[in-house]
Give the backbone structure.
Amino acid sequence: PDDPLDNSGVEANEDVNVGRIVLSKPSEFYLSKSNVEWLNQTCHDMQAATTSDGTSQLVAANGAKCWTDDFIPWNNAYDANPNNTALDWSSQSAIAKRIQLFLADPRYTVEHQRAFGGLLNVANPERVEYVRFEFDTRVKRTDSNSRVKFWYSEWTLAMKNVNKRAPDGLKYGMQASRKWAQVVTKDELASATWQSIFISFAVAVVVLMATTKNFPVATLASLSLLGVTVTIIGTLVIMGFTLDLVESICGTILVGLAVDFSVHLSHSFNETHTRGTFVRVRGALVEMGVSVLSGAITTLMAAFFLFFAVLTFFNTFGTFIFVTILCSLLWSVFFLMPALIVFGPAHKPKGDFSYLWAKYVKKEAVGDDSSYKRPPEKRLEAHTSPEEED
């Protein structure tokens, strides 16, 4: 009952298999007069069915499409005609052929042919493989993923209850909807998006550590990047965006776009050979501030024109870039720079990995100032010839 479909050994994406239903227990489904009457009653019962907490109905008003309402009186009228042979309910082949006659009636062909899985076009059918009832549910197009999950669980529970009381031949019912597939898709998108964000953030932290080679600077830059990421996600949620295919693509590149300004400013701060955090921050802003601001302005202007795009992808992508660059600029200038003034190293090599290794691991007396001798740096020196010295 929990797995009525048999997909083993089947490539679902092949054209020949698209839309084809392969049942795991086809021989255990059969129709009889009492079964058809039970299906008719159950279809009408579903119209009045409610959620497990009794707060809402599962089916919208007049949302039950019961083909049995038309078939039962049509079949009774057919049998009442003395020129016709009464239906032998013990023969599955006879039932299938009678339903074919019912579907051939122009009054019912369009409305009910979907209920029997293409039975109308089968020559000399041996049996009816399955029947289907359609219901207009109360699931709204605007419902959140969690709300759709709630409706899925309620319909799953309702179908289990139907199977429990179903007579022999009808015990393997199932319920399906395109909405349920969207729930699984969105769950996978959300999982992949968060995974890419976490991996990208971890890689960004490693890159910051490698480029600055300074623990306090890299840590503050990482905190700035974390703040940018959280702010961007929160802003997009407030703006009404929900996680879909386009938003998932944007999420995968979020950290890569957001890290640029923090990397540039923290690296410039770290390479400023002056004493005092305020002086070093001012040097970083003087050296890289113009480049960072110019890059932000040009990117924001490019994203601005995407606001007016007709295609949803470009409109959403433009909004994402605009919010990302703006948040990245604000966090790098108004959080990272003040944080470096308060918590950053006052001079080189304080905070460098080589400095920390020598002081805390090798226990060398390096002091807290520039008296610690860093590894020699390669410098260009001017050499003079003996003639020039003379």
